[in-house]
Specification:
Elements lengths: L1 E3 L8 H7 L11 E4 L2 E5 L4 E7 L9 E5 L10 E8 L2 E4 L8 E4 L4 E6 L8 E8 L4 E3 L3 E6 L15 E9 L5 E9 L3
Parallel strand pairs: 3-12
Antiparallel strand pairs: 1-11, 2-4, 4-9, 5-6, 5-10, 6-7, 8-9, 10-11, 10-12, 13-14
């Protein structure tokens, strides 16, 4: 379990203050985040899961992204929080058409559509506990470009092209048979 206090992440003070009215006193919380890591190609859809074990159903689960490795200069970027069936709160600059948050406590899903290499990073689910912010262990998402495919050579259709195929017989002698191939449209 990865727990951090808000003082360790000064950028989250505003986030913490905005949800202060929603806080509930509850025991030790654990966030189970899956998968731990994921490598996908460009334009695929990715679904991340976060499950709370001992959390009331009113607990909001926040999704954050860290684009670079943990360092003094790294920070969490607020992506979204599912508020109700018809409402999701998105972070500033988040492409809402690419990102969907589904469900509420105890299980919450983050769905990313048409991912690009710029979407790579560590994704965290988080809840506001008392007195700590509680984080999932994170999902390392790596988006790699789709390999370029070389175009197939164009072959005129409707013609016969001879092709030789060497087929060994069961005996010592071998024979070659001539085959023809017709390319149909």
């Amino acid at each position: 379990m990865h727990t951090q206090t808000s003082s360790a992440h000064p950028g989250l003070y505003l986030l913490w203050a905005s949800v202060l009215p929603d806080l509930a006193l509850h025991g030790s919380l654990v966030l189970q985040q899956t998968p731990a890591s994921l490598m996908v190609q460009t334009n695929q859809t990715v679904t991340l899961s976060c499950k709370t074990e001992t959390s009331p159903s009113t607990t909001r689960i926040y999704w954050l992204r860290q684009r670079q490795a943990l360092s003094a200069n790294s920070h969490y970027e607020f992506l979204a929080c599912w508020v109700s069936v018809n409402k999701t709160v998105y972070g500033q600059g988040v492409e809402q058409e690419k990102l969907t948050v589904l469900g509420n406590s105890p299980r919450n899903l983050l769905k990313l559509q048409s991912v690009k290499p710029a979407d790579s990073g560590v994704y965290f689910c988080m809840i506001v506990g008392v007195p700590n912010l509680i984080f999932g262990k994170g999902t390392q998402l790596s988006v790699v470009p789709t390999p370029a495919r070389s175009p197939l050579p164009s072959v005129p259709t409707g013609k016969e092209y001879p092709c030789c195929l060497h087929i060994p017989n069961k005996s010592i002698h071998t024979s070659t048979r001539l085959l023809s191939m017709r390319i149909l449209q």
